[in-house]
Amino acid sequence: MKTQTLLDQHESSKDFIVRLIQLSVPIMLQNLLSSSVSFVDTLMIGLVGESALAAVGLANQMFFLIVLFYFGVSSGAAIFVAQFWGAGDRKKMHQVMGIALVISLLGALFAAAVSILIPGTIMRVFTNDPVVIAYGMEYLRIVGVSYLFTAVVMIYSAALRSTGDSKTPLFISLFSMSLNVVLNYLLIFGHWGFPQMGVAGAALATTIARFAEVVLLLGRVYGLKTPVAAPLRSLVSFPKPLVKIYFITCLPVILNEMFWSLGMTTYKIAYSRMGIEVIASVNVSEAIQGLFFVVLMGIGNASAIMIGNRIGENNLTLAKIYANRLLKISVLTGFVLGIGLALTSSILVLPFNLSAEVAQMTTLSLIALGILIPIKAFNMVSIVGILRSGGDTRFSMLAELAGVWFIGVPFAFIGALLLHMPIYYLYLFVGLEEAFKLVLGLRRIRSGKWINRLADTPAPPSVIA
Q1: Which terminus of the chain has fewer Cβ atoms in its 10 Å neighbourhood, N or C?
Q2: What is the DSSP string of 140-152?
Q3: pTM for the predicted model, two decimal places
Q4: How far apart are the first and last CA of the chain?
Q5: Burial class of residue 256, CB neighbours in 10 A (0-12, 13-18, 19+)
């Protein structure tokens, strides 16, 4: 029996890298497309001017907040979908998707109403500059409706990936984001007979592209009758025991993402007090960093699927083996990406319409961000990929929020307003919260207390993720 177990593990070891690549590469490409669009948006808006660039960056904090709310809801649902798929229980998969859709759409309605009805109030949280506020209001009034489309896309995409289908969300995103870039070109600058709309054109392009994305995704999911093509009766059927366990497990994830995103937005409030030049630099730095971070997001999401499926199959030993392998891969990948970002920093800022001062500031910021990437890589896999997939959502929430609110946020304001640090040193100062989370996450994973089996039925031999 022991020999057979070792043989099974050896076979799993050989298949491990292949499976990781199959799952992570489409997710990486999808995130790369998303970050590339953000990069191109930032590049195009930068051609309008630094005030417009700052305004769109600040206005998109509302989208940043609501997307991370969706991410919390969809990540929580994905924990269940991965385990129920591993256990062969489609009905419960669909019911969990229904719960997640209702929660996400309620959040989307609130965010859309706020963005459309009181955009000036949102902008004044970040800046008192009247030009930046005016640009931001123009953008928010148009883009707010797109939050509803994104809510649906994120739930179905997360469910598809949890069943092993990473390609469908990728191809749909490829079309949507390509459309976004083309429409940006036409509507921001008024090419090919289209009106020159500036910031409003960027907002309209984004809204049209997101609408096209949700239509295409739902059409493919239900047209091909994929495993996540939930019938309406399942989406609106919420058995009380399932709702209870969903909220017990997922509420910490949702709260984690909400308060983490509020923390990131609070960082932006601190940075915005340092001047328009700093805001413009931060927007460019983070758009560039996003291009490098997509690899880590791919590995993190693939980790959650692989480990969740193994737990659903009740193969807990293999889940632990996978966790150790994935942590090593994350750190190695983080070092490679961090070095690459630091070495290419001066080249990456060249396409942007930046003054010499802002370009130098951004170059040094990218070097600082490159130093932090290996630690962020570990935390991405440990929190999103391992602890959450094992249902250990309460601990991951406490670790994340303690780092952000007890270290990151205070340090951001101390560094910006009291110590008057340059933004590149401030990034490193705030980054101490990542080191704190690394220590907590490593200790928790080593304890083995993170594994919680949420699926209560064994997996049939025919359902292997």
Answers
A1: N
A2: HHHHTTHHHHHHH
A3: 0.68
A4: 24
A5: buried
Among 118, 115, 117, 80, smallest CA distance to 96 is for 80
465 within a domain of the structure (yes/no): no
Q: Kindly report, residue by residue over 190-222, the tens digit of the pLDDT.
A: 888 788 887 888 889 889 988 999 999 999 989
The yes-or-no verdict on residue 107 having pLDDT over 50 is yes
Which position has the higher pLDDT, 1 or 425? 425
In a domain, 113, yes or no: yes
What are the residues whose beta carbons fall under 8 Å from the beta carbon of 233, sequence distance 6 or more? none
Crossing angle of helices 119-126 and 90-117, rounded to 10°: 80
Q: For residues 179 and 185, give the distance between their C-alpha atoms in angstroms, rounded to a whole number.
A: 10
Q: Which residues lie closer than 8 Å to 4 by C-beta, 6 or more apart?
A: none
- Give residues with Cβ within 8 angstroms of 216, minimum separation 6: 172, 175, 176
Tell me the two tokens of residue 228. Answer: 């996540």
**Sorting pLDDT into bands at 50, 70 and 90, what band is 333?**
very high
**63, 49, 32: which is closest to 203 by C-alpha?**
63
Looking from the CA of 176 toward its CB, the CA atoms found within 13 Å total 27
Q: How many domains does the chain have?
A: 1
In terms of residue numbers, what domain contains 331? Answer: 2-447
For residues 161 and 18, the answer to whether their CB atoms sit within 8 Å is no
Residue 458 counted as domain residue: no
What are the CA-CA distances from residue 460 to residues 5, 148, 305, 419 (Å)?
A: 19, 37, 18, 60
E strands, 207-291, are none
A 10 A CB-CB count for 61 gives: 21
